[in-house]
Amino acid sequence: MKIVHIVGARPNFMKAAPVLFALRKHPQVEQLLVHTGQHYDERMSDIFFRQLGMPRPDINLDVGSGSHAVQTAEIMVRFERVLLAQKPDWLMVYGDVNSTIACALVAVKLGVKIAHVEAGLRSWDRSMPEEINRVLTDQISDLFFTPSTDGDENLKREGIAPEKIHFVGNCMIDTLVRLLAQARKPGIDGLEGRFALVTLHRPSNVDAPEELERIVQTLSELGEEIPVVFPIHPRTRQRLAGMAGVSPGAGLYLIEPQGYLEFLWLQQHATMILTDSGGIQEEATFLNVPCLTIRENTERPITCDLGTNILVGRDMERLKREARRILGGDRKTGTLPPYWEGQAGERVARVMAGVADAQGIFP
Ligand code: UD1
After folding, report:
1. Which residue's C-alpha comes closest to atom 22 of ligand 1?
2. Which residue among 42, 117, 262, 339 is least enclosed by CB atoms within 10 Å?
3. Domain enclosing residue 71, as ranges
């Protein structure tokens, strides 16, 4: 049985790696790795392949950046040629980025079955591009691998047959478990002792200048109480560059996007994490580091229910209050969600190998 895996953007790499590795143990499965090129900078893509020990992509579509329509359409046009030439039995897609839905749409029209890893998550906020990508990808998928049981419930409510849903746990955490011992301290001039770690890249936070200015102002104030380390996503850097009025305070360390191992070290040693990312809410929960999420909602409610995550919305006074509470030693602790222990990729691979056995198709 032949499987094509799709990766495109930074968070895809840590989810696909454990599945690729685990499937190598099943000789009835032939694998091909396609990178759409949605992320292409050394620091957004190549460094992850190296640090995660991933095989080089067999094919890179080199689509690059663009508006949602341009990027999605370009991926579809280029990927259709690949799919027609490769004729896989299954497409495996990861997460909720534009590459996920674009390739899934191509596959479903060509009659190629789709397995979605990280299926079923819902923020219920359709102003998020990722929510559209998740809902639509799940509507056209054939197999569903969920990281937490809320995903199972959401899918069943949307009419997905329960036998197609497999609760496997969190593939992103597999990568964290594998590489935690190799986490390494990045060199940041002048940084000593405790620090808070920040990431921001959601369009809702960074695309409107007044919103971004309010957040940077708050982070600068927080920087007077604890150093704030802020690796800047390219989208956010562009927005900041266009804003003459913003002057980050002295306690704010604006640094380049970090490699996986360096960012892992920063997360592990942070006093708190402030973020609008999805995956970082999960990693903070695994590492038992307090996390304040600068969003009104989350598609990962389990990180609030069981983990260390608190949704502060975009209320900057609340953000400062919660941050000060953590600085004062009053911090939320959490427990690990089930199956967040490093074996999710193995579970995915066992299901896919079973599908191959049942189909009796060998490479
Ligand atoms: C994408 C995902 C988001 C994910 C994030 C992780 C979608 C809709 N969004 O958002 O879910 O959380 O990746 O990073 O798929 N850029 C570079 N170098 C790169 C890639 C991008 O400079 O290697 C710049 C470009 O100017 C680009 C902008 O960043 O226009 C945004 O990139 P894009 O892939 O459109 O979305 P992200 O904001 O990265």
Report:
1. 234
2. 42
3. 2-175+340-359
Are 194 and 170 found together in one domain? no
pLDDT exceeds cutoff 80 at 251: yes
Q: How many other CB atoms are found less than 10 A from the CB of residue 152?
A: 18
269 tagged catalytic: no
Which of 298, 268, 262, 296 minimizes the C-alpha distance to 281?
Answer: 298
Residue 104 lies in a domain: yes
Residues 151 and 279 in one domain: no
Catalytic residue among 68, 201, 233, 269: 201
Q: How far is the CA of 96 from the centre of ligand 1 (A)?
A: 12
Please give the structure tokens belonging to residue 319: 């953000």
Tokens of 239: 């927005």
The domain total for the chain is 2
CATH number at residue 205: 3.40.50.2000
Gap from CA of 135 to ligand 1 centroid (Å) = 20
Q: For residue 81, is it within any domain?
A: yes
Q: Give the alpha-carbon dihedral of 57, 61, 62, 63, to 10 degrees.
A: -140
Question: Is the distance from CB of 110 to CB of 99 less than 8 angstroms?
Answer: no
pLDDT band at 122 (very low <50, low <70, confident <90, very high): very high
Statement to judge: residues 126 and 67 lie in one domain: yes
Q: Is the pLDDT of residue 362 over 60?
A: no
Report field, pTM of the whole predicted structure over 0.85: yes
